[in-house]
Design goal:
It is a single chain. 72% of the residues lie in helices and 0% in strands. The radius of gyration is 17 Å and the shape is globular. It starts with a helix and ends with a helix. The protein folds into two domains: 2-80, no CATH class; 83-139, no CATH class. By secondary structure, it is mainly α.
Length: 140
Amino acid sequence: MTHLWYGQSQFLILLLLVVVMRGLWRRRDELAGLALAAAVLFKAFPAVIIGYMLTQRRWRAIGWTLRGFILGAMAALPVTGLKEWTEFLKSQAGAAPDVDNMAIAGFIARACGHVFSTASAAAARAILVAGFQILLLLAT
């Protein structure tokens, strides 16, 4: 439990992803979807598995993921408040504050900052980042 106390949720996310894959393998879409929703509520990167579910046409699992995410977000909102969510999303849309940050989003924000300087272009930047990440996944 000290792992979670210090904000290190990777082990829990790994466990949830194992449950997701096991649930998909056993055709337990509700279990897979709810476990994926819980993992996505911790960190955003497990949402990539929704792409796998789309290719496999696991619509029920995707539906359970969306239901679980919405219910989890609604349960978290009274505890965290809407301001925390909006501040987090705003912080993710801007350029990385540290030059040593080599994340893909930070790289693109620094390289194309003058092109994507308006708030309305945040969606275009997000699409560019997602496309770059997909290219990296396909290249490996």
